[in-house]
Design brief:
Number of helices: 8
Radius of gyration: 18 Å
Order of helices and strands: HHHHEEEHHEHH
Largest sheet: 4 strands, mixed
Oligomer: single chain
CATH class of the largest domain: Alpha Beta
CATH topology of the largest domain: Endonuclease, Chain A
Structural class: alpha+beta
Shape: globular
Strand content: 5-15%
Distance between the termini: 56 Å
Strand order of the largest sheet: 1-2-3-4
Low-confidence stretches: 9-40
CATH superfamily of the largest domain: VSR Endonuclease
Bound molecules: zinc ion
């Protein structure tokens, strides 16, 4: 019995991933903020499941940053569970973690990617508010555990060249007292 239940859970998972990936693809093609069709056609439970998959799948910036830091000789753990907020990159020996925040979900202030969809505005406003509160709470929890927390915005990574950002991150990682201030906004 548990075998068939597992099978079913697995196939549900696969379907959810396929939906998330195709949405991810579509969203990146059509730029942020135009995904209202999805909002109107799926239930809120399904939508919220899909969104959580998208959040973990749609991180081109995260992959780019990982590769660039690796090329600079930094070694890290990825998405380490058991730490508040599951930081994207964890540097255990350096006592530091990095989040690569998507500008849309995490509301990069003043950034052109941080649009608000026109339909279901109340839903999105509430959703974004909760995201911002959760981010602040998770950072505080990490700091209470003596981790140094750096936040990098998606648009900072996607904006080339990466060099200046990598320099700032390198200082943050190598200086035991280092802090990483996110840059304000995307002017591109
Ligand atoms: Zn941004």
């Amino acid at each position: 019995m548990s075998y068939s239940l597992n099978m079913r859970a697995e196939s549900t998972q696969i379907v959810a991933e396929k939906v998330a990936i195709s949405w991810c693809f579509w969203q990146s093609k059509s730029e942020y903020g135009k995904h209202n069709g999805m909002t109107d056609t799926v239930s809120s439970v399904v939508r919220s499941k899909i969104m959580s998959r998208v959040r973990s799948k749609c991180s081109k910036a995260e992959v780019m940053l990982r590769k660039a830091l690796h090329a600079r000789g930094f070694r890290y753990r990825v998405n380490r569970r058991g730490l508040p907020g599951t930081p994207d990159l964890v540097f255990p020996r350096r006592g530091a973690v990095l989040f690569v925040h998507g500008c849309f979900w995490h509301r990069h202030d003043g950034c052109r990617r941080a649009t608000t969809p026109a339909t279901n505005e109340a839903f999105w406003t509430e959703k974004f508010k909760r995201n911002i509160e959760r981010d602040a709470r998770k950072i505080a929890e990490l700091e209470a555990l003596s981790w140094r927390v750096g936040v990098v915005w998606e648009c900072e990574v996607l904006r080339q060249p990466l060099g200046p950002l990598l320099d700032r991150i390198a200082v943050f990682l190598t200086d035991p007292e280092g802090v990483l201030k996110p840059s304000d906004r995307d002017h591109s």
